[in-house]
Each structure stands twice: as structure tokens, then as C-alpha cells.
Design goal:
The longest helix is centred in the first third of the chain and has 40 residues. The protein is built from 27 helices and 15 strands. It is an alpha+beta fold. The chain folds into 4 domains: about 100 residues, no CATH class; about 190 residues, no CATH class; about 130 residues, no CATH class; about 200 residues, no CATH class. The chain starts with a helix and ends with a strand. The radius of gyration is 34 Å and the shape is extended. A hairpin with a 4-residue loop joins β6 and β7. The strands form 3 sheets. The chain has a 5-stranded mixed β-sheet, sandwiched between helices. Strands 5-6-7-8-9 form a 5-stranded mixed β-sheet. A 5-stranded mixed β-sheet has the order 10-11-14-13-12.
Length: about 725
């Protein structure tokens, strides 16, 4: 969520700078460049606000990267963790045994330790704030969009209900002649509605011009029809809704409202310019008279559904009339100027760019052994100054073992697993624990993105501790040497990740005695860091399978190979993967002969719904329904909707109806909203009626095709795709 919020903010900031630039330069180009250019140049701003495309180097990318770097430097993982490190190092160097009480674990002991006060879970707080901000942005965006859409739909509905087809044959013939003369193609209806205050154009798929009456002079009818048809030919409705979507997405940005107001004004001015460019100079005054006559409309929609052109303000009408009388074709010099300025604005939009999230995630391990533990070679005696900042004698021998989750254990001077302390760390963080036979020292915590600069973080802490005489130079050499090995291994594996290749990742499959997560792809996969083998499927076809080195020993076993083959058969049977060129074993978890019900009970409390779903689909119907009940009561909406799709079709329909009723009665709108999409049309209509009768508007508007008959509030209708003469 944090990455998405950063993207939205960067797009909004880029767009704001372009808006500010256009507003500040307006006095220079307002009377010199064409209204048509002034109108369409705003598309550059709109596209910058909507499209998350950015060059590799951009102003927004640099700005947000610098901010992220400042945030990284202030987190407790790197240099700011000195207080806690000092405490442990001081105890370690006295030779006394130290108990691990680091404040990044989930245990009660860790949370109650003195280090807890020094090390708040900063990233967790940031993530929570990010989720709150994303939820707020999404709710307001959806509410604004639904509001604007329903207001527009309701207005169009009321206009259509009160309208009737134009029956005057002579007017229809003149209308057809206007379309033919100006080469306007497409089905455009002409209708009459005395409730509208001025002529307007509505409708995307079935465009129609609505006239307030037919008592128009020949010239008024001609210019009115030509004006609205010009809106139709230029697809101004699409443009205005593009602006509305932009406003909904960037509702928090005051500059987008300036943009919206300016495009509304320029829409009519540029349309006028297009019209008068196609008529003789002597006819301009007649066109202006048509605009003045349109102001005097008496329709009942005149106040609440004010025209975005004439009835909005007398000042705007005056500006349009002035522009009509002063119109002249642009000189060649001005045409070149528009091209030059357009190029500058497009170049500025590209240079401003947007925030780009880091590609991929670093690998979580270094070289992997068949038993699941990752081990590096024992450090050799030699020069310890290799990029670590130390020039003293080599550190003692050690070996590094990664627990496969988040902790690097560095065993020093023959220490073994029996000497290591109990330790824990928050998900997605990393920690280093140096273990001696009689003591240990802890560094951390570090985020995954900190690992590529691990030596820098460790060195900064070590220098401070060395100055305070809390560690020796030998200790510092050891810490930096081991940190460099871990950092280098981490960078190597990071380079081997799939940055140029993409494959489909599917949910895990339970195939006794494993839970196997699989994927498949069409493009030949790079083998960097991966091994491969060929598996023969039941149809005698051969399928290349890629896997990590840690699974090599397990896959040499016939039972394991059989389980993998069976899981692949199930994946291809359930997935449209006829074009698959290869399969990938993403993860394998050995679960042994444990009973299925016991495995389900074990994995239910965990936070991975896809893993639990692999077990859920193997349960009988009774057990499935019991777990669905439990998920509903525990409010585990993610688990619930991963699993309900695994229930047999007939029972699934009954379950959806039952849980929708329970969610409605318990006022659990999140469950109810998600279940709507699983209902058939008849059930949706029944619930829609029920919600309306109960007056539950928040539920009623969840349905995709809700009734808008009772929605009569049009006061926010200023900026929609209704075009008036």
C-alpha cells in the first residue's frame, strides 16, 4: 500500500507542477495562441496525472528516492541502533553470558525487554499508516466517482423521460444537411424537452441533442446544431469524463480543481473557435446572437443544472463573445511557437516522471544446503582489510548459517547450534547473531533493502562502539568480515532473480507428504541460480521443471518426484496452461504423514491463506463448512474468499446465500460486498430490493446496476459531459 500511495503522490505532484506552469504562463499565451491548442494542451497534464510511466531517471524518482534514503537512515536497523548494540556488546566483551532480549520478535519476553523502548517497530507503524492512507484514498475516490456517475445518470434519465422526438420534417432535413455539409458521421438524434434551459448534448453510445423548444430562427437552429455537433465530433464528452476521473483520483490536490475549471472554460471557447473557423466572417455576429438568445431559456433545470457554458456566468458569455469577434487565424510564427511550447511541456512531463517502486525483492538466503540450512565457507586467515576499513590481523575462524527465515547465525571459534540463543525477528526483517561458546552479540534489525549496504551499517556502529572501548579491534574485524560475506552473497543472489522473465505463480497444492507451490511460463527461463530437470507427464509429454538448489537432494527421492509430478498434473488440469513451456517449483514444504485435519488446524492460524487453501480443498464438505463458519466468525475475509471457491458448485451457491444473509444481519458490509459478486442476477435483484426497502443506502449502492430513480440531488453537476449551446 505504501508503494501505491507514493505513486499517487508523485503523479499528483508532477501534475501540480505542470498545472502551475500553465497557469503562470497563461497571460503570455492567452491572447496569442489558439483556444484549440489551449484546450488540448491540458491533455499532457491529464496524462501525467493518470499514467504511471516514468523514465529511469526523473525528478520525482530522485525526490522520493532521497526521501526513502533519509527514512532508511532514521530507522533502528542501521546506524541508529547503537544504544541496543552497545548494551549487548558491553556484556559480551566481559565474557559473561547474555540473554537475547532484542525487540523485534513476537514473543512476550522480547516485547517486555529494555530494548523494546529503544527499538519501536518503525516499519510496522509506517505500514499501518500506509494502509490507513490507502483505505482513505480509495474510499473517497470511489465515493466521488459513484456520486458523479449517479448524478449524471439520473440527470440524463430525467432529461430522456421528459423528451420527445423532433417531428418537424423541415428541421430534421436541415439537421441532416448540416451534418452532411460538415462531414459529421454517426447516429445523432434530435429531441425536444421543455425542461432544459438551453440546448445540450448527452449520451456516449446513443448521442442526442436536446433542444428546449423548436421556436428557433433559421440561423439560431443552424448555429445551435453546428455547435453541439462540433462537441460530438471532437469527442468532448470523453475529454470531460477523463477530467472527472482525474479529479476523483486526485481529490486531495487543489490544483486539479483549477485544471477542471480551466478545461471547462476552454472547452466552449475552443468549440466556438472551431465553429467560426468554418463560417464566413460576416456570420460571426449571428453566431454570437445565438449564444445570447440561449441565455434566456426558461427551463426548470436552469438553476440546479446550470449550463457549463451560458448559464454559468455572464462573464464567461462575455469572454466568448469577445473571442468570437476578435478571432483571427494563427500566423506561421505562432504555429511554430505552439509546436515549441508543446514540446517543452511534453519534455517537462517526461522529466518530472513519477515514483517507481524497486523492481523485485532481494533473495532471502545465501548458498543453500540440501538440509534447508544455508552455509558459507569458513573464513580463512589473511588480510582483513578487504573493503571493511580494517587493517589488523585476520579475525578468528567462523561459519555463517542462515535459518531460512530471517536470522544469520555466525558461529565463532567452534561454537555450535547448542550454543546459540533463542531469537526471533519481525517478518521481512533480518538480524545477525554472532555466537561464541560463552556469549553472543546481536546486530539488527535490518530491512531487506538494507542488506546490500550491510557493511556500511555495521561499520558505523562498530566505530562508535570502538571509540567507547566497548568492543576490540579484533571484534570489529570479525563483524565486518562476516558482514561483507553476507552482503556479497546477498547481492549475488539479488542479481540472479527473475528480473527479465515472468511466469505465472499459482497457489500451493497438497500432495502428500508435501505442500508444493508451483508456477508456469511461456518464455524460456534463465537458469541463473536455478537447476532444471525434465518430468514426464501422464500424456507422455515432457515438461522442463526449474527448482532451487536447496530442493536438489529431495528431488532425487522417488517419493518426492512422484509428489511433484502429481502436483504438476493437478495444476495443468485446473489451469488453462496449454501454452506452458516450463514449470517452476517455487516452494516445497515437507509435512510428512500428519493427518489432513491436523495440518489444516496447524496452518489456519498462520497468515498465508493460499497455503491453507491447498489443505482446505482436500477436506470433506462437512469440514469445509465448519472452517467457513470459523472464518466468518473470526472475520478472516481473505481466508474466506480464498476457500469458498473450493466448495462444490451446488453447496457453494447455498453457502453464498447463507453467509450473505448472516453478513447483512450482522452489518458486516465487507463480507456482504464481496459475496455480491458471487451471486446470480436474480439473487442480486432480490437483495437490491431488500436493501432499498430497509433504507440501507450503504448496502444499496454496492450493487452494480442500482436504481437511480430516487436520486434527485443535482447540485454537484457542474462539470459533466453535458454540452450546451
Amino acid at each position: 500500500m505504501n508503494e501505491f500511495i507514493k505513486l499517487i503522490l508523485s503523479l499528483s505532484l508532477s501534475g501540480s507542477l505542470l498545472i502551475l506552469l500553465l497557469i503562470l504562463l497563461r497571460p503570455l499565451y492567452r491572447g496569442r495562441l489558439s483556444k484549440n491548442w489551449q484546450y488540448y494542451i491540458w491533455l499532457v497534464v491529464i496524462l501525467r496525472l493518470l499514467l504511471p510511466v516514468t523514465p529511469e531517471a526523473s525528478l520525482m524518482g530522485s525526490l522520493f528516492s532521497a526521501q526513502e534514503q533519509r527514512s532508511t537512515d532514521n530507522l533502528p536497523g542501521p546506524e541508529t541502533a547503537l544504544g541496543q548494540a552497545e548494551t549487548f556488546y558491553g556484556a559480551a566483551n566481559t565474557g559473561s553470558a547474555v540473554t537475547d532480549r532484542h525487540d523485534v520478535g513476537n514473543t512476550t519476553a522480547e516485547k517486555n525487554s529494555p530494548a523494546a523502548a529503544l527499538f519501536p517497530d518503525t516499519m510496522t507503524d509506517h505500514e499501518n499508516i500506509g494502509r490507513v492512507l490507502f483505505s482513505l484514498w480509495l474510499v473517497v475516490t470511489l465515493l466521488l466517482f459513484v456520486r458523479r456517475l449517479t448524478v449524471y445518470q439520473s440527470f440524463v434519465k430525467y432529461v430522456d423521460i421528459g423528451s420527445r422526438p423532433l417531428e418537424d420534417i423541415s428541421l430534421l432535413e436541415r439537421f441532416g444537411l448540416i451534418m452532411e455539409q460538415h462531414q459529421i458521421k454517426g447516429p445523432v438524434d434530435l429531441r425536444i424537452n421543455s425542461l432544459v434551459s438551453s440546448p445540450l448534448l448527452v449520451g456516449f453510445l446513443h448521442p442526442r441533442i436536446i433542444l428546449p423548444h423548436t421556436d428557433l430562427s433559421e440561423s439560431d437552429f443552424y448555429y445551435t446544431a453546428l455547435h453541439e455537433l462540433t462537441h460530438y465530433r471532437r469527442r468532448d464528452m470523453l475529454y470531460k469524463w477523463l477530467v472527472q476521473i482525474t479529479v476523483c483520483l486526485h481529490w486531495f490536490n487543489p490544483f486539479v480543481y483549477l485544471m477542471c475549471r480551466e478545461t471547462n472554460r476552454l472547452c466552449e471557447l475552443s468549440c466556438d473557435e472551431r465553429v467560426i473557423a468554418s463560417i464566413p466572417e460576416a456570420a460571426r455576429r449571428s453566431y454570437g446572437t445565438t449564444l445570447v438568445n440561449a441565455v434566456d431559456g426558461d427551463g426548470s433545470y436552469k438553476d440546479t443544472l446550470a449550463s457549463v457554458t451560458l448559464n454559468e456566468s455572464k462573464e464567461l458569455l462575455k469572454g466568448r463573445l469577445d473571442a468570437i469577434m476578435k478571432y483571427k487565424k494563427m500566423s506561421k510564427l505562432m504555429r511554430y511557437a505552439t509546436l515549441f511550447i508543446t514540446g517543452i511541456l511534453i519534455g517537462s512531463a517526461v522529466a518530472l516522471g513519477a515514483y517507481a517502486a524497486p523492481n523485485g525483492r532481494p533473495a532471502d538466503d545465501i548458498s543453500t544446503a540440501p538440509d534447508g540450512g544455508a552455509v558459507t565457507d569458513t573464513a580463512k586467515a589473511g588480510d582483513s582489510s578487504d573493503n571493511t576499513g580494517s587493517t589488523t590481523a585476520a579475525p578468528p575462524e567462523y561459519r555463517i548459517q542462515y535459518d531460512g527465515d530471517s536470522i544469520y547465525y555466525i558461529y565463532v571459534d567452534g561454537a555450535t547450534d547448542s550454543d546459540k540463543p533463542l531469537s526471533n525477528v519481525t517478518n521481512d526483517y533480518r538480524k545477525l547473531v554472532f555466537v561464541w561458546k560463552d556469549r553472543y552479540t546481536t546486530f539488527g534489525t535490518f530491512r531487506p533493502e538494507d542488506m546490500s549496504g550491510l557493511v556500511r551499517h555495521i561499520r558505523s556502529q562498530c566505530r562508535t562502539l570502538l571509540d567507547k572501548e566497548q568492543i576490540t579491534q579484533e571484534d570489529m574485524d570479525l563483524y565486518l568480515q562476516a558482514a561483507k560475506e553476507i552482503q556479497d552473497s546477498y547481492r549475488d543472489l539479488e542479481e540472479q532473480t527473475f528480473t527479465a522473465y515472468y511466469f505465472n505463480v499459482l497457489g500451493p497444492y497438497y500432495q502428500k507428504p508435501y505442500i508444493i507451490e508451483l508456477g508456469y511460463g511461456q518464455q524460456t527461463l534463465s537458469q541463473n541460480g536455478y537447476l532444471s530437470m525434465t518430468v514426464t507427464l501422464s500424456d507422455q509429454s515432457n515438461m522442463p521443471v526449474y527448482y532451487k538448489a536447496e530442493y536438489e537432494q529431495a528431488l532425487s527421492d522417488k517419493e518426492t518426484l512422484y509428489a511433484v509430478t502429481a502436483a504438476l498434473e493437478r495444476m495443468f488440469a485446473q489451469t488453462n496452461a496449454d501454452d506452458a513451456e516450463y514449470a517452476v517449483i517455487i516452494n516445497m514444504e515437507y509435512v510428512g504423514d500428519t493427518a489432513l485435519s491436523s495440518l489444516a488446524a496447524k496452518y489456519y492460524p498462520e497468515e498465508d491463506p493460499s497455503l491453507f487453501t491447498s489443505l482446505f480443498r482436500e477436506l470433506d464438505t462437512r469440514e469445509k463448512m465448519q472452517y467457513l463458519d470459523r472464518m466468518f466468525e473470526d472475520d478472516k475475509i481473505d481466508f474466506f474468499f480464498w476457500c469458498i471457491g473450493e466448495v462444490e458448485t451446488e453447496q457453494q451457491k447455498e453457502a453464498v446465500a447463507d453467509y450473505a444473509l448472516r453478513a447483512y444481519q450482522k452489518d458486516n458490509i465487507d463480507f456482504f460486498a464481496a459475496l455480491i459478486g458471487m451471486m446470480d442476477t436474480e439473487s442480486q435483484m432480490q437483495w437490491q430490493t431488500q436493501c432499498k426497502e430497509d433504507g440501507k443506502d450503504d448496502y444499496f449502492w454496492l450493487f452494480p446496476d442500482n436504481n437511480t430513480d430516487d436520486y434527485e440531488d443535482f447540485e454537484d453537476f457542474d462539470d459533466f459531459d453535458v454540452f450546451n449551446d
